[in-house]
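[Discussion] Sanity-checking designs against the backbone

I'm trying to build intuition for which residues belong where. Below is a structure token string of 331 positions. I'd appreciate it if someone posts a full sequence so I can compare it with mine line by line.
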């Protein structure tokens, strides 16, 4: 059963990722990153990966932090019911991505073959604020701690700097939403059964490129060569996992601007992190990406895993300077 959508408004995973700054931990890596890596880095949005520093070769396969459920097809959803579930789930993701009413703080652990960093991140009305707390799973050295304090001092005293960062976050989020809104029309979906997921029963759909989809911009061009699967929590009508693989090379600007190589993949996992806070709040809890490509004449590879934990609520309307105070106080 194939489900093919042409909905004008579609979906988005919660796009609340940060473009925070911190002391440059890459100086601890064997080969410090080049100055070009100071470009804005948006971890979650795979279509910006060509702006990122090179990492180790791409050679592993996607995994899951919650185990792979055994899906069964005997209780297949009727076609109309399956289509309605996908439409509702994607619409829920769109609404959640644009809802700022539940700001959170959380811990982000980002791992690559050369480096692991851990940051405490606070969501504020002025944009996200981060504090680096560990490098390679070890507390900061005295020198690193001093540098981090100096960075926070400079940020707190320069509202213009935070304002520019917030503008960059908003721009990147807008680009991400363009890609994610295109998911319903970019793919044809096929129901693949149900199984026990981390939050209860989940319905699995596999997807492949829709031959009738014409990407309207550079960001959505990658979707024309991506296939994978999406899991939906039927009770909550939320997406719990999306996995995508590049089936062919993707050229940008006829290959002049760059290329993404066949075989790259991403995995995004979501969960309801709100029960202990008394709210319904789904967030990304795990993100994996392994891709390689070329920017003009320079080859790049990217291999990262991000795990997000320790969610806690923050006051609505919290300013970034107050958040810095709270970060320092460990609140």
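Best answer:
Here's mine. Compare freely.
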């Amino acid at each position: 059963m194939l489900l093919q959508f042409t909905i004008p408004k579609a979906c988005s995973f919660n796009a609340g990722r940060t473009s925070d700054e911190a002391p440059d931990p890459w100086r601890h890596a064997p080969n410090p990153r080049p100055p070009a890596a100071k470009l804005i880095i948006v971890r979650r949005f795979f279509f910006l990966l060509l702006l990122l520093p090179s990492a180790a070769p791409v050679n592993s396969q996607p995994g899951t932090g919650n185990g792979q459920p055994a899906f069964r097809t005997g209780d297949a959803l009727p076609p109309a019911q399956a289509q309605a579930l996908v439409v509702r789930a994607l619409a829920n993701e769109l609404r959640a991505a644009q809802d700022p009413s539940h700001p959170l703080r959380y811990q982000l652990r980002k791992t690559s073959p050369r480096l692991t960093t851990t940051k405490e991140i606070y969501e504020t009305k002025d944009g996200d604020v981060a504090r680096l707390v560990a490098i390679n799973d070890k507390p900061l050295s005295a020198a690193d701690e001093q540098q981090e304090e100096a960075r926070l001092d400079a940020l707190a005293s320069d509202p213009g700097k935070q304002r520019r960062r917030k503008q960059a976050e908003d721009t990147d989020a807008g680009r991400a939403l363009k890609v994610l809104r295109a998911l319903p029309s970019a793919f044809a979906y096929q129901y693949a059964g149900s199984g026990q997921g981390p939050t209860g029963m989940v319905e699995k759909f596999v997807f492949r490129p829709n031959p009738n989809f014409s990407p309207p911009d550079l960001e959505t061009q990658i979707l024309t060569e991506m296939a994978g699967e999406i899991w939906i929590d039927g009770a909550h009508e939320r997406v719990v996992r999306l996995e995508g693989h590049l089936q062919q090379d993707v050229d940008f600007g006829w290959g002049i601007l760059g290329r993404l190589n066949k075989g790259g993949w991403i995995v995004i996992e979501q969960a309801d992190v709100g029960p202990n806070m008394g709210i319904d709040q789904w967030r990304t809890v795990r993100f994996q990406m392994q891709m390689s490509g070329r920017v003009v004449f320079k080859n790049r590879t990217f291999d990262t895993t991000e795990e997000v934990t320790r969610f806690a609520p923050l006051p609505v309307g919290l300013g970034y300077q107050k958040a810095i105070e709270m970060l320092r106080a460990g609140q």
